[in-house]
Amino acid sequence: MSMQIHSIFTQAFNDQKPGTSGLRKKVKWFQQPNYLENFVQSIFDTVAVPAGASLTVGGDGRYYNRHAIQIIIRMAAANGFSRVIVGQGGILSTPAVSHIIRQYKTFGGMILSASHNPGGIDGDFGIKYNIQNGGSAPEKITEAVYAKSKTITQYRVADLTEVDIDTIGESSFETANGAFTVQVIDAVEDYANLMESLFDFPAIKTLLNSGFSMKFDAMHAVTGPYAREIFVNRLGAPENSIMNCVPSEDFAGGHPDPNLTYAEDLVKIMFAGESAPDFGAASDGDGDRNMILGKNFFVTPSDSLAVLAANATLIPAYANGIAGVARSMPTSGAVDRVAQQLNIPCYETPTGWKFFGNLMDAGKVTLCGEESFGTSSNHVREKDGLWAVLFWLNILARHYQSSGTASVQEILMKHWATYGRNVYSRHDFEGIPIEAANNVMQHIKAQFSSLPGQSFGDYVVKTCDDFSYHDSIDGSVSHNQGTRILFEDGSRIVFRLSGTGTEGATLRIYLEAFEPDTTQHHLDAQEALAKLIEIAGQLSLLTEKTGRFTPTVIT
Ligand code: G16
Protein backbone atom coordinates (compact mmCIF):
# COMPACT_ATOMS: atom_id res chain seq x y z
CA MET A 1 0.00 0.00 0.00
CA SER A 2 1.38 3.38 -0.88
CA MET A 3 1.90 5.86 1.92
CA GLN A 4 -0.40 8.83 2.27
CA ILE A 5 0.73 12.44 2.18
CA HIS A 6 -1.01 14.81 4.59
CA SER A 7 -1.13 18.59 4.69
CA ILE A 8 -1.17 19.79 8.28
CA PHE A 9 -2.42 23.25 9.18
CA THR A 10 0.00 25.24 11.30
CA GLN A 11 0.60 28.68 12.75
CA ALA A 12 3.68 30.64 11.77
CA PHE A 13 6.39 31.50 14.30
CA ASN A 14 8.07 34.87 14.01
CA ASP A 15 11.49 33.92 15.41
CA GLN A 16 12.87 31.51 12.82
CA LYS A 17 15.54 33.81 11.47
CA PRO A 18 18.71 31.81 10.78
CA GLY A 19 21.83 33.23 12.47
CA THR A 20 25.48 33.00 11.44
CA SER A 21 25.01 29.31 10.78
CA GLY A 22 21.41 28.11 10.68
CA LEU A 23 18.59 28.22 13.22
CA ARG A 24 19.78 27.60 16.79
CA LYS A 25 17.50 27.53 19.83
CA LYS A 26 17.04 25.67 23.07
CA VAL A 27 15.91 22.05 22.61
CA LYS A 28 12.70 22.89 24.50
CA TRP A 29 11.96 25.65 22.01
CA PHE A 30 12.34 23.21 19.13
CA GLN A 31 10.02 20.80 20.94
CA GLN A 32 7.05 23.16 20.58
CA PRO A 33 4.43 21.57 18.34
CA ASN A 34 5.19 22.21 14.65
CA TYR A 35 8.28 24.34 15.32
CA LEU A 36 10.73 22.12 13.47
CA GLU A 37 8.14 21.12 10.85
CA ASN A 38 7.41 24.78 9.99
CA PHE A 39 11.08 25.54 9.47
CA VAL A 40 11.72 22.43 7.36
CA GLN A 41 8.69 23.15 5.18
CA SER A 42 9.83 26.77 4.78
CA ILE A 43 13.17 25.47 3.49
CA PHE A 44 11.57 22.98 1.08
CA ASP A 45 9.18 25.64 -0.23
CA THR A 46 12.02 28.12 -0.71
CA VAL A 47 14.41 25.85 -2.57
CA ALA A 48 11.66 24.39 -4.82
CA VAL A 49 12.56 20.71 -4.65
CA PRO A 50 12.73 19.17 -8.14
CA ALA A 51 10.90 15.86 -8.53
CA GLY A 52 13.11 12.88 -7.77
CA ALA A 53 15.73 14.88 -5.84
CA SER A 54 17.79 13.37 -3.03
CA LEU A 55 18.68 14.85 0.34
CA THR A 56 21.57 14.20 2.74
CA VAL A 57 20.65 14.26 6.44
CA GLY A 58 22.82 13.92 9.50
CA GLY A 59 23.63 15.53 12.79
CA ASP A 60 26.13 15.60 15.61
CA GLY A 61 24.18 13.11 17.71
CA ARG A 62 22.98 15.59 20.29
CA TYR A 63 19.67 15.19 22.11
CA TYR A 64 16.69 15.49 19.68
CA ASN A 65 18.84 14.49 16.67
CA ARG A 66 17.16 11.15 16.09
CA HIS A 67 13.66 12.56 16.57
CA ALA A 68 14.35 15.44 14.17
CA ILE A 69 15.72 13.07 11.54
CA GLN A 70 12.52 11.00 11.56
CA ILE A 71 10.48 14.19 11.05
CA ILE A 72 12.71 15.32 8.19
CA ILE A 73 12.48 11.90 6.49
CA ARG A 74 8.66 11.96 6.65
CA MET A 75 8.57 15.52 5.33
CA ALA A 76 11.12 14.83 2.57
CA ALA A 77 8.94 11.94 1.37
CA ALA A 78 5.97 14.29 1.21
CA ASN A 79 7.83 17.08 -0.57
CA GLY A 80 9.04 15.33 -3.69
CA PHE A 81 12.36 13.82 -2.62
CA SER A 82 12.85 10.27 -3.85
CA ARG A 83 15.87 9.46 -1.66
CA VAL A 84 17.25 10.50 1.71
CA ILE A 85 20.83 9.56 2.57
CA VAL A 86 21.38 9.34 6.34
CA GLY A 87 24.53 8.67 8.33
CA GLN A 88 24.26 5.51 10.44
CA GLY A 89 22.55 6.30 13.74
CA GLY A 90 21.72 9.74 12.32
CA ILE A 91 25.33 10.81 12.80
CA LEU A 92 27.37 12.79 10.31
CA SER A 93 29.88 15.51 11.05
CA THR A 94 29.25 18.83 9.31
CA PRO A 95 32.21 18.44 6.91
CA ALA A 96 31.09 14.85 6.24
CA VAL A 97 27.62 16.12 5.24
CA SER A 98 29.26 18.59 2.90
CA HIS A 99 31.32 15.80 1.38
CA ILE A 100 28.36 13.42 1.06
CA ILE A 101 26.27 16.09 -0.71
CA ARG A 102 29.09 16.54 -3.22
CA GLN A 103 30.03 12.89 -3.58
CA TYR A 104 26.49 11.54 -3.98
CA LYS A 105 25.39 14.70 -5.84
CA THR A 106 22.35 15.19 -3.62
CA PHE A 107 20.16 18.25 -4.13
CA GLY A 108 21.00 19.52 -0.67
CA GLY A 109 21.46 18.53 2.94
CA MET A 110 20.14 19.11 6.42
CA ILE A 111 22.60 19.36 9.29
CA LEU A 112 21.20 18.92 12.79
CA SER A 113 23.54 20.61 15.20
CA ALA A 114 24.05 23.63 17.39
CA SER A 115 27.76 23.20 16.80
CA HIS A 116 29.84 24.11 19.83
CA ASN A 117 26.82 24.99 21.99
CA PRO A 118 26.01 22.61 24.88
CA GLY A 119 23.48 19.81 24.25
CA GLY A 120 21.05 17.66 26.23
CA ILE A 121 17.41 18.26 27.06
CA ASP A 122 18.23 21.67 28.57
CA GLY A 123 20.85 22.47 25.94
CA ASP A 124 20.71 23.71 22.38
CA PHE A 125 19.61 22.27 19.08
CA GLY A 126 20.01 23.59 15.58
CA ILE A 127 19.20 22.98 11.95
CA LYS A 128 20.94 24.23 8.84
CA TYR A 129 20.31 23.72 5.15
CA ASN A 130 23.21 23.19 2.77
CA ILE A 131 22.94 23.60 -0.98
CA GLN A 132 24.15 21.46 -3.88
CA ASN A 133 27.77 22.63 -3.69
CA GLY A 134 27.90 21.24 -0.14
CA GLY A 135 28.00 24.66 1.52
CA SER A 136 25.60 26.46 3.84
CA ALA A 137 22.76 28.18 2.06
CA PRO A 138 23.71 31.75 1.20
CA GLU A 139 21.93 34.73 2.75
CA LYS A 140 19.48 35.16 -0.10
CA ILE A 141 18.13 31.67 0.64
CA THR A 142 18.18 31.99 4.45
CA GLU A 143 16.38 35.34 4.20
CA ALA A 144 13.74 33.81 1.92
CA VAL A 145 13.32 30.87 4.35
CA TYR A 146 12.81 33.34 7.17
CA ALA A 147 10.21 35.28 5.16
CA LYS A 148 8.40 32.04 4.34
CA SER A 149 8.47 30.90 7.98
CA LYS A 150 6.55 34.02 8.97
CA THR A 151 3.64 33.29 6.63
CA ILE A 152 3.52 29.50 6.49
CA THR A 153 0.06 28.01 6.99
CA GLN A 154 0.64 24.30 6.35
CA TYR A 155 3.30 21.66 6.01
CA ARG A 156 3.35 18.30 4.25
CA VAL A 157 4.21 15.01 5.86
CA ALA A 158 4.02 11.36 4.81
CA ASP A 159 2.44 8.80 7.12
CA LEU A 160 5.61 6.76 7.44
CA THR A 161 6.29 4.90 10.64
CA GLU A 162 9.72 5.16 12.26
CA VAL A 163 12.41 4.35 9.69
CA ASP A 164 15.45 2.24 10.72
CA ILE A 165 18.44 4.59 10.61
CA ASP A 166 20.81 2.25 12.45
CA THR A 167 21.30 -0.52 9.90
CA ILE A 168 23.43 0.20 6.86
CA GLY A 169 21.37 -0.43 3.74
CA GLU A 170 18.18 0.80 2.09
CA SER A 171 14.50 0.88 3.04
CA SER A 172 12.09 1.60 0.19
CA PHE A 173 8.51 2.81 0.34
CA GLU A 174 5.81 3.50 -2.24
CA THR A 175 4.33 6.97 -2.58
CA ALA A 176 1.77 8.35 -4.98
CA ASN A 177 4.78 9.86 -6.86
CA GLY A 178 6.81 6.62 -7.04
CA ALA A 179 9.44 5.01 -4.83
CA PHE A 180 10.95 6.75 -1.80
CA THR A 181 14.18 5.31 -0.40
CA VAL A 182 16.03 5.91 2.83
CA GLN A 183 19.67 4.92 2.43
CA VAL A 184 21.72 4.53 5.60
CA ILE A 185 25.45 4.88 4.97
CA ASP A 186 28.55 4.35 7.07
CA ALA A 187 29.04 7.77 8.65
CA VAL A 188 32.82 7.59 8.65
CA GLU A 189 34.14 5.69 5.66
CA ASP A 190 33.58 8.17 2.79
CA TYR A 191 35.06 11.00 4.83
CA ALA A 192 38.07 8.98 5.99
CA ASN A 193 38.73 7.98 2.36
CA LEU A 194 38.60 11.63 1.34
CA MET A 195 41.17 12.54 3.99
CA GLU A 196 43.41 9.70 2.86
CA SER A 197 43.25 11.05 -0.69
CA LEU A 198 44.40 14.53 0.39
CA PHE A 199 47.21 13.85 2.87
CA ASP A 200 50.38 11.81 2.98
CA PHE A 201 49.19 9.07 5.35
CA PRO A 202 52.43 7.00 5.09
CA ALA A 203 54.51 10.04 6.16
CA ILE A 204 52.16 10.79 9.08
CA LYS A 205 52.27 7.12 10.05
CA THR A 206 56.07 7.25 10.14
CA LEU A 207 55.93 10.37 12.34
CA LEU A 208 53.45 8.77 14.75
CA ASN A 209 55.68 5.68 15.02
CA SER A 210 58.81 7.73 15.70
CA GLY A 211 58.08 8.50 19.35
CA PHE A 212 56.18 11.68 18.43
CA SER A 213 53.13 11.81 20.70
CA MET A 214 49.72 13.35 20.04
CA LYS A 215 46.44 13.79 21.85
CA PHE A 216 43.16 14.43 20.07
CA ASP A 217 40.10 15.42 22.11
CA ALA A 218 36.73 14.79 20.44
CA MET A 219 34.98 16.43 23.41
CA HIS A 220 32.35 13.62 23.55
CA ALA A 221 31.08 14.84 20.21
CA VAL A 222 30.75 13.74 16.61
CA THR A 223 34.41 13.42 15.57
CA GLY A 224 35.05 10.53 18.01
CA PRO A 225 34.33 7.71 15.53
CA TYR A 226 36.13 9.61 12.73
CA ALA A 227 39.19 10.15 14.92
CA ARG A 228 39.37 6.50 15.91
CA GLU A 229 39.14 5.36 12.30
CA ILE A 230 41.68 7.89 11.01
CA PHE A 231 44.26 8.21 13.79
CA VAL A 232 44.12 4.75 15.36
CA ASN A 233 42.95 2.39 12.61
CA ARG A 234 44.50 4.02 9.55
CA LEU A 235 47.49 5.92 10.96
CA GLY A 236 48.46 3.47 13.72
CA ALA A 237 48.41 5.98 16.61
CA PRO A 238 48.03 4.31 20.02
CA GLU A 239 44.54 4.22 21.51
CA ASN A 240 45.58 6.67 24.23
CA SER A 241 46.28 9.34 21.62
CA ILE A 242 42.55 9.99 21.37
CA MET A 243 40.21 11.00 24.21
CA ASN A 244 36.48 11.57 24.80
CA CYS A 245 35.70 9.78 21.54
CA VAL A 246 32.27 8.32 22.27
CA PRO A 247 29.60 10.80 21.08
CA SER A 248 27.12 11.60 23.82
CA GLU A 249 23.70 13.26 23.55
CA ASP A 250 24.74 15.96 26.00
CA PHE A 251 28.51 15.88 25.38
CA ALA A 252 28.87 14.34 28.85
CA GLY A 253 27.55 17.58 30.30
CA GLY A 254 30.37 19.56 28.68
CA HIS A 255 30.58 22.47 26.31
CA PRO A 256 31.99 21.04 23.06
CA ASP A 257 33.83 24.20 22.08
CA PRO A 258 37.53 23.63 21.33
CA ASN A 259 39.10 26.67 22.95
CA LEU A 260 41.39 27.26 25.90
CA THR A 261 38.47 27.60 28.31
CA TYR A 262 36.14 24.75 27.38
CA ALA A 263 38.72 22.17 26.23
CA GLU A 264 40.29 22.34 29.66
CA ASP A 265 41.08 18.61 29.98
CA LEU A 266 43.19 18.71 26.85
CA VAL A 267 44.73 22.06 27.75
CA LYS A 268 45.90 20.63 31.10
CA ILE A 269 47.54 17.71 29.32
CA MET A 270 49.19 19.91 26.70
CA PHE A 271 50.52 22.43 29.22
CA ALA A 272 51.93 19.83 31.63
CA GLY A 273 55.53 20.84 31.00
CA GLU A 274 58.06 18.40 29.55
CA SER A 275 55.73 15.41 29.88
CA ALA A 276 53.17 17.04 27.55
CA PRO A 277 52.55 15.38 24.17
CA ASP A 278 54.18 16.94 21.09
CA PHE A 279 50.90 17.77 19.42
CA GLY A 280 47.35 18.31 20.64
CA ALA A 281 44.07 19.10 18.94
CA ALA A 282 40.35 19.23 19.64
CA SER A 283 37.21 19.66 17.61
CA ASP A 284 33.70 20.80 18.40
CA GLY A 285 30.18 19.37 18.59
CA ASP A 286 29.72 18.88 14.85
CA GLY A 287 33.38 18.51 13.88
CA ASP A 288 33.90 21.65 11.84
CA ARG A 289 36.08 23.56 14.31
CA ASN A 290 39.60 22.77 15.43
CA MET A 291 42.06 23.92 18.04
CA ILE A 292 45.76 23.25 17.50
CA LEU A 293 48.25 23.01 20.37
CA GLY A 294 51.92 22.20 20.59
CA LYS A 295 53.82 21.11 23.69
CA ASN A 296 52.96 23.93 26.14
CA PHE A 297 51.97 26.09 23.19
CA PHE A 298 48.71 27.45 21.72
CA VAL A 299 48.31 28.28 18.04
CA THR A 300 45.70 30.96 17.37
CA PRO A 301 43.31 29.99 14.58
CA SER A 302 44.46 33.07 12.63
CA ASP A 303 48.09 31.95 12.83
CA SER A 304 47.09 28.40 12.01
CA LEU A 305 45.52 29.55 8.74
CA ALA A 306 48.66 31.51 7.87
CA VAL A 307 50.91 28.51 8.59
CA LEU A 308 48.74 26.20 6.50
CA ALA A 309 48.84 28.64 3.58
CA ALA A 310 52.60 29.10 3.84
CA ASN A 311 53.21 25.33 3.93
CA ALA A 312 50.47 24.16 1.57
CA THR A 313 52.82 22.79 -1.06
CA LEU A 314 54.10 20.23 1.46
CA ILE A 315 50.70 18.52 1.24
CA PRO A 316 49.94 16.17 -1.69
CA ALA A 317 46.53 17.77 -2.39
CA TYR A 318 48.02 21.27 -2.63
CA ALA A 319 51.45 20.41 -3.99
CA ASN A 320 50.86 22.54 -7.08
CA GLY A 321 50.10 25.63 -5.02
CA ILE A 322 46.93 27.37 -3.91
CA ALA A 323 44.82 29.73 -6.02
CA GLY A 324 44.08 32.20 -3.25
CA VAL A 325 43.01 32.48 0.38
CA ALA A 326 40.10 34.04 2.23
CA ARG A 327 39.53 34.96 5.84
CA SER A 328 36.66 36.48 7.77
CA MET A 329 37.06 40.15 8.62
CA PRO A 330 37.77 39.66 12.36
CA THR A 331 40.46 37.05 11.57
CA SER A 332 43.96 38.50 11.86
CA GLY A 333 45.89 39.67 8.81
CA ALA A 334 48.58 36.98 9.30
CA VAL A 335 47.42 35.09 6.22
CA ASP A 336 47.38 38.32 4.18
CA ARG A 337 51.17 38.52 4.62
CA VAL A 338 51.60 34.98 3.36
CA ALA A 339 49.33 35.65 0.38
CA GLN A 340 51.33 38.74 -0.46
CA GLN A 341 54.56 36.77 -0.47
CA LEU A 342 53.01 33.97 -2.54
CA ASN A 343 51.53 36.58 -4.85
CA ILE A 344 48.04 35.14 -4.61
CA PRO A 345 44.78 36.97 -3.82
CA CYS A 346 43.46 37.26 -0.27
CA TYR A 347 39.76 37.98 0.29
CA GLU A 348 38.18 39.46 3.41
CA THR A 349 34.59 38.33 4.02
CA PRO A 350 32.08 38.70 6.86
CA THR A 351 31.96 36.15 9.67
CA GLY A 352 30.22 32.99 8.49
CA TRP A 353 31.59 30.17 6.40
CA LYS A 354 28.78 30.62 3.88
CA PHE A 355 30.56 33.69 2.49
CA PHE A 356 33.47 31.54 1.23
CA GLY A 357 31.31 29.28 -0.95
CA ASN A 358 31.08 31.54 -3.99
CA LEU A 359 34.82 32.23 -3.96
CA MET A 360 35.62 28.51 -3.82
CA ASP A 361 33.08 27.62 -6.51
CA ALA A 362 34.61 30.27 -8.76
CA GLY A 363 38.08 28.79 -8.19
CA LYS A 364 39.35 32.03 -6.62
CA VAL A 365 40.45 30.52 -3.31
CA THR A 366 41.74 27.17 -2.10
CA LEU A 367 42.15 27.75 1.66
CA CYS A 368 39.84 29.68 3.97
CA GLY A 369 39.81 30.34 7.67
CA GLU A 370 38.22 32.15 10.55
CA GLU A 371 39.41 33.23 13.96
CA SER A 372 36.55 31.18 15.44
CA PHE A 373 38.61 27.98 15.12
CA GLY A 374 37.55 27.24 11.55
CA THR A 375 39.85 26.29 8.69
CA SER A 376 39.25 24.33 5.54
CA SER A 377 39.81 24.10 1.81
CA ASN A 378 37.84 23.54 -1.36
CA HIS A 379 37.72 19.75 -0.75
CA VAL A 380 34.33 20.47 0.88
CA ARG A 381 32.28 23.64 1.40
CA GLU A 382 32.36 23.67 5.20
CA LYS A 383 35.09 24.21 7.69
CA ASP A 384 36.70 20.94 8.63
CA GLY A 385 38.23 20.19 12.03
CA LEU A 386 39.93 16.87 11.33
CA TRP A 387 41.21 18.11 7.98
CA ALA A 388 43.06 20.91 9.81
CA VAL A 389 44.52 18.44 12.32
CA LEU A 390 45.74 16.19 9.49
CA PHE A 391 47.16 19.20 7.63
CA TRP A 392 49.24 20.05 10.71
CA LEU A 393 50.33 16.45 11.18
CA ASN A 394 51.34 16.31 7.52
CA ILE A 395 53.43 19.49 7.87
CA LEU A 396 55.06 18.10 11.01
CA ALA A 397 55.70 14.79 9.23
CA ARG A 398 57.49 16.59 6.42
CA HIS A 399 59.60 18.53 8.93
CA TYR A 400 60.46 15.26 10.63
CA GLN A 401 61.47 13.77 7.26
CA SER A 402 63.75 16.67 6.43
CA SER A 403 65.20 17.58 9.84
CA GLY A 404 64.43 14.76 12.25
CA THR A 405 62.42 17.10 14.49
CA ALA A 406 58.80 18.13 14.52
CA SER A 407 57.79 20.96 16.83
CA VAL A 408 54.68 23.13 16.56
CA GLN A 409 56.28 25.98 18.49
CA GLU A 410 59.34 25.94 16.28
CA ILE A 411 57.16 26.15 13.16
CA LEU A 412 55.38 29.19 14.60
CA MET A 413 58.59 30.93 15.68
CA LYS A 414 60.08 30.49 12.22
CA HIS A 415 56.84 31.66 10.63
CA TRP A 416 56.79 34.85 12.72
CA ALA A 417 60.48 35.47 12.03
CA THR A 418 59.69 35.35 8.30
CA TYR A 419 56.40 37.26 8.19
CA GLY A 420 56.25 39.15 11.49
CA ARG A 421 53.65 38.35 14.13
CA ASN A 422 50.05 39.54 14.07
CA VAL A 423 49.49 39.43 17.81
CA TYR A 424 45.86 38.55 18.29
CA SER A 425 43.22 37.86 20.89
CA ARG A 426 39.45 37.62 21.13
CA HIS A 427 37.52 38.44 24.30
CA ASP A 428 33.97 37.06 24.54
CA PHE A 429 31.37 38.35 26.95
CA GLU A 430 28.61 35.74 26.90
CA GLY A 431 25.01 35.96 28.10
CA ILE A 432 24.76 39.77 28.26
CA PRO A 433 21.20 41.15 28.27
CA ILE A 434 20.44 41.99 24.63
CA GLU A 435 19.56 45.60 25.39
CA ALA A 436 22.84 46.21 27.23
CA ALA A 437 24.82 44.67 24.36
CA ASN A 438 23.01 46.86 21.84
CA ASN A 439 23.75 49.90 24.00
CA VAL A 440 27.45 49.11 23.90
CA MET A 441 27.41 48.80 20.11
CA GLN A 442 25.43 52.03 19.72
CA HIS A 443 27.78 53.85 22.05
CA ILE A 444 30.77 52.84 19.91
CA LYS A 445 29.07 53.82 16.68
CA ALA A 446 28.07 57.18 18.11
CA GLN A 447 31.79 58.03 18.32
CA PHE A 448 32.55 57.24 14.66
CA SER A 449 32.79 60.87 13.58
CA SER A 450 34.84 62.10 16.55
CA LEU A 451 37.36 59.25 16.85
CA PRO A 452 39.55 59.63 13.75
CA GLY A 453 42.71 61.53 14.71
CA GLN A 454 42.31 60.88 18.45
CA SER A 455 45.32 59.47 20.31
CA PHE A 456 45.28 56.80 23.01
CA GLY A 457 48.88 56.64 24.16
CA ASP A 458 50.85 55.59 21.06
CA TYR A 459 47.71 54.52 19.23
CA VAL A 460 46.10 57.05 16.90
CA VAL A 461 42.71 56.23 15.38
CA LYS A 462 42.81 56.30 11.59
CA THR A 463 39.23 55.36 10.70
CA CYS A 464 36.21 53.55 12.04
CA ASP A 465 33.40 51.87 10.17
CA ASP A 466 30.81 49.14 10.03
CA PHE A 467 32.18 46.41 7.82
CA SER A 468 30.25 45.78 4.59
CA TYR A 469 31.00 43.07 2.08
CA HIS A 470 30.42 43.13 -1.62
CA ASP A 471 30.44 39.62 -3.06
CA SER A 472 32.34 39.94 -6.33
CA ILE A 473 30.81 36.71 -7.67
CA ASP A 474 27.07 37.18 -7.18
CA GLY A 475 27.00 40.93 -6.55
CA SER A 476 25.25 40.64 -3.18
CA VAL A 477 26.07 43.12 -0.44
CA SER A 478 26.05 42.39 3.31
CA HIS A 479 26.04 45.34 5.71
CA ASN A 480 26.64 45.71 9.47
CA GLN A 481 29.14 42.88 9.75
CA GLY A 482 31.19 44.27 12.64
CA THR A 483 32.36 47.61 13.98
CA ARG A 484 36.01 48.36 13.30
CA ILE A 485 38.32 50.86 14.96
CA LEU A 486 41.44 51.00 12.79
CA PHE A 487 44.64 52.64 14.06
CA GLU A 488 47.39 54.42 12.12
CA ASP A 489 49.94 51.63 12.76
CA GLY A 490 47.66 48.90 11.38
CA SER A 491 46.41 47.71 14.77
CA ARG A 492 42.68 47.34 15.19
CA ILE A 493 39.84 46.63 17.56
CA VAL A 494 36.66 45.04 16.24
CA PHE A 495 33.39 44.81 18.15
CA ARG A 496 30.75 42.38 17.00
CA LEU A 497 27.65 40.63 18.33
CA SER A 498 27.72 36.87 17.84
CA GLY A 499 25.11 35.31 15.59
CA THR A 500 25.28 31.84 17.12
CA GLY A 501 24.30 32.22 20.77
CA THR A 502 20.92 31.19 22.13
CA GLU A 503 20.90 33.06 25.45
CA GLY A 504 21.07 36.84 25.63
CA ALA A 505 23.83 38.37 23.52
CA THR A 506 27.48 37.48 23.18
CA LEU A 507 29.71 40.46 22.57
CA ARG A 508 33.02 39.70 20.92
CA ILE A 509 36.01 42.04 21.00
CA TYR A 510 38.77 41.19 18.55
CA LEU A 511 42.19 42.76 19.17
CA GLU A 512 45.12 42.79 16.79
CA ALA A 513 48.54 44.45 16.64
CA PHE A 514 51.48 43.77 14.34
CA GLU A 515 54.87 42.97 15.86
CA PRO A 516 57.81 42.74 13.44
CA ASP A 517 60.47 42.57 16.19
CA THR A 518 61.54 38.95 16.78
CA THR A 519 62.74 39.73 20.31
CA GLN A 520 59.09 40.42 21.23
CA HIS A 521 57.58 37.34 19.60
CA HIS A 522 57.70 35.23 22.77
CA LEU A 523 55.35 37.61 24.60
CA ASP A 524 51.98 36.44 25.80
CA ALA A 525 49.24 38.00 23.63
CA GLN A 526 47.36 39.49 26.61
CA GLU A 527 50.54 41.22 27.70
CA ALA A 528 51.37 42.47 24.23
CA LEU A 529 47.80 43.70 23.69
CA ALA A 530 47.31 45.24 27.15
CA LYS A 531 47.01 48.81 25.87
CA LEU A 532 44.53 47.89 23.13
CA ILE A 533 42.46 45.95 25.69
CA GLU A 534 42.36 49.09 27.85
CA ILE A 535 41.32 51.24 24.86
CA ALA A 536 38.54 48.77 24.01
CA GLY A 537 37.13 49.15 27.51
CA GLN A 538 37.39 52.91 27.31
CA LEU A 539 35.69 53.19 23.91
CA SER A 540 32.89 50.75 24.62
CA LEU A 541 32.16 51.52 28.29
CA LEU A 542 31.48 47.81 28.45
CA THR A 543 31.81 47.49 32.21
CA GLU A 544 29.66 50.55 32.88
CA LYS A 545 26.94 49.37 30.49
CA THR A 546 26.93 45.63 31.25
CA GLY A 547 28.41 45.29 34.73
CA ARG A 548 30.98 42.86 33.30
CA PHE A 549 34.64 43.19 34.20
CA THR A 550 36.21 40.09 32.71
CA PRO A 551 35.51 38.13 29.54
CA THR A 552 33.81 34.73 29.74
CA VAL A 553 36.30 33.34 27.25
CA ILE A 554 39.68 34.67 26.16
CA THR A 555 41.22 33.22 23.04
C1 G16 B 1 29.64 29.42 13.03
C2 G16 B 1 29.95 29.79 11.61
C3 G16 B 1 31.32 30.40 11.52
C4 G16 B 1 31.44 31.57 12.47
C5 G16 B 1 31.11 31.10 13.86
C6 G16 B 1 31.11 32.21 14.89
O1 G16 B 1 30.47 28.39 13.44
O2 G16 B 1 29.89 28.64 10.79
O3 G16 B 1 31.52 30.78 10.19
O4 G16 B 1 32.71 32.12 12.43
O5 G16 B 1 29.84 30.52 13.88
O6 G16 B 1 30.05 33.04 14.63
P1 G16 B 1 29.59 34.13 15.68
O7 G16 B 1 30.80 34.96 15.94
O8 G16 B 1 28.49 34.84 14.97
O9 G16 B 1 29.15 33.40 16.92
P2 G16 B 1 29.88 27.07 14.07
O10 G16 B 1 31.07 26.22 14.36
O11 G16 B 1 29.14 27.53 15.29
O12 G16 B 1 28.96 26.52 13.02
CATH fold descriptor of the largest domain? Alpha-D-Glucose-1,6-Bisphosphate, Chain A, domain 3
Helical region count?
A: 18
* Relative strand content: 25-35%
CATH class of the largest domain: Alpha Beta
Helix content: 25-40%
Q: How does the SSE layout of this entry go?
A:
Layout: E1 5-9, E2 23-26, H1 27-30, H2 35-47, E3 53-59, H3 65-78, E4 81-91, H4 94-103, E5 108-112, E6 124-130, H5 139-149, E7 154-158, E8 169-175, E9 178-185, H6 189-198, H7 201-208, E10 214-217, H8 223-234, E11 242-243, H9 264-270, E12 279-283, E13 290-294, E14 297-299, H10 301-310, E15 325-328, H11 334-342, E16 346-349, H12 357-361, E17 367-370, E18 374-377, H13 385-403, H14 408-419, E19 421-432, H15 434-445, E20 455-456, E21 459-466, E22 469-470, E23 477-478, E24 483-487, E25 492-497, E26 505-515, H16 525-528, H17 530-540, H18 542-546, E27 553-554
Parallel strand pairs: 3-4, 3-5, 4-9, 10-11, 10-12, 15-16, 15-17
Antiparallel strand pairs: 1-7, 2-6, 5-6, 8-9, 12-13, 13-14, 17-18, 19-26, 19-27, 20-21, 21-24, 22-23, 24-25, 25-26
Bound molecules: 1,6-di-O-phosphono-alpha-D-glucopyranose (G16).
The site of 1,6-di-O-phosphono-alpha-D-glucopyranose has 18 residues, from loops.
